[in-house]
Amino acid sequence: MTWVAIILSALALVASLAHWVWDWWTGNLRGRRRGSRHGRHESVALRVELLAEGTNCFVIRGGYSLIFASLRIYNESEQREATVARLVVELRRGRRWRPLAPQPNDDAFIFGSLARNALPVELAPGASEDIYEVFLLPDLIDQTNIRVRVVAWDYSGAHAFVDDTLAHRLDDRPPLDILFQTLDLRPPTPTTRDPSPPA
């Protein structure tokens, strides 16, 4: 019986150590996956970053989800201009990346830094541009964190990307108000001319 007890104790210890090692390994792996990842074609001078002070999150509304992206795109070349021709934002669902479309909004035209209004944009050597967008997913996200990938393309088809984790946020304001008020940005006030006096 003593030998049986020793063997069982040894097996329990091995199982406990194996469980600890597994938890440690998968925890590190999840941590690495949660971090920001960058990449680009060798021929492209663009670099994409998520703005730390910007609005990068997702909000759940009745029957759909909104994904907010605040980006800074750099031209890392000191000799030549670079063009951001288009921007693609994708959501990771399972093992696939799903492209997102901008959220339709009648007031979007007043916010010139929205990707739908700003692109294409020319970047001088060493310059950068801040670009924002609100994307619509016609589904509810049943997670507290999501993985998104932002890809900036130039006219040649070369691209740079960043993928990162966005957290859920509770916010009942209209989508563009979230961008305007969080970033302390306001649309320009329309000006109207006084009617000409009658001749």
CATH names the topology of the domain at 36-169 as: Immunoglobulin-like
Question: Total number of helical segments?
Answer: 3
The appropriate CATH architecture of the domain at 36-169 is: Sandwich
Order of helices and strands: HEEEEEEEEHEEEEH
Q: Roughly how many Å apart are the termini? A: 116 Å
Task: Round the Cα radius of gyration to an integer and report it.
Answer: 24 Å
CATH class of the domain at 36-169: Mainly Beta
Kindly report the average pLDDT value.
78
List the helices and strands and how they pair.
Layout: H1 2-34, E1 37-40, E2 46-50, E3 57-61, E4 64-75, E5 82-84, E6 86-93, E7 96-99, E8 101-102, H2 115-118, E9 121-123, E10 128-137, E11 145-153, E12 159-168, H3 175-182
Parallel strand pairs: 3-12
Antiparallel strand pairs: 1-12, 2-4, 3-4, 4-10, 5-9, 6-7, 6-11, 8-10, 11-12
